[in-house]
Amino acid sequence: MSHRAANDPSVLDGVPFFEDVDTDERRRILELSSSREIATGELLLDQGDTAVECFLVLEGALGVYVRGEYVASVGAGSMVGEMALVDHRPRTASVVAEAPTRLLAFRTREFRTLLDEMPRASERILSELQARLDRNRDA
């Protein structure tokens, strides 16, 4: 894994949610989050748990499981755990690191602040949520 400092706004380069965000807004995103690294095989989210934070993948890969069944792999630029923060429900999936993974973690209050302060990022996150809900409904 490369090791750009977690407070370097360039860690958000290539992240679709924040592609139209200027440097000051990127700094604010980093202020609202904390950096985390997890090892291959480490459980990040457990289905059914109460949500207190969500994560943005900077590097690495995560496997997503519903009732123990593998459903997807997500990588850099993906967000996980935000659905439970938005709709105030228990986690709908378990997420496990498939490789060493660097993340930005947003606690509930900071995530809400992010959505309030950055409408473009908020629109992208909410449209991704809607797409996931539609896919889940069709599955």
Mind sketching the topology for me?
Layout lengths: L22 H10 L1 E5 L4 E3 L7 E7 L1 E6 L2 E7 L3 E2 L1 H6 L6 E4 L3 E7 H10 L1 H20 L1
Antiparallel strand pairs: 1-8, 2-7, 3-6, 3-8, 4-5, 4-7
Shape descriptor: globular
Overall number of structural domains: 1
Extended strand count: 8
**Could you say which structural class the secondary elements and strand pairing correspond to?**
alpha+beta
Question: What is the CATH architecture assignment?
Answer: Sandwich
> Averaged pLDDT, please?
86
Q: Major β-sheet, in short?
A: 4 strands, antiparallel
In CATH terms, the superfamily is Jelly Rolls
Query: How big is the Rg?
Result: 14 Å
Question: pLDDT below 50 for ≥5 consecutive residues: which ranges?
Answer: none
Neighbour order of strands in the largest sheet: 1-8-3-6
Top CATH class = Mainly Beta
Compute the separation of the termini in Å.
Answer: 35 Å
**Helix residue percentage:** 25-40%
Count of DSSP-assigned helices: 4
Summarize the structure.
Helix content is 33%, strand content 29%.
Protein model, in words:
The chain has 139 residues and is α+β, with helices and mostly antiparallel strands. It has one domain (12-138): Jelly Rolls, CATH 2.60.120.10. It is built from four helices and eight strands, in the order αββββββαββαα. The strands form two sheets. The protein has a four-stranded antiparallel beta sheet. α3 (108-117) packs across α4. The longest helix has 20 residues, at 119-138. It is globular, with a radius of gyration of 14 Å. The protein starts with 22 loop residues before the first helix and ends with a helix.
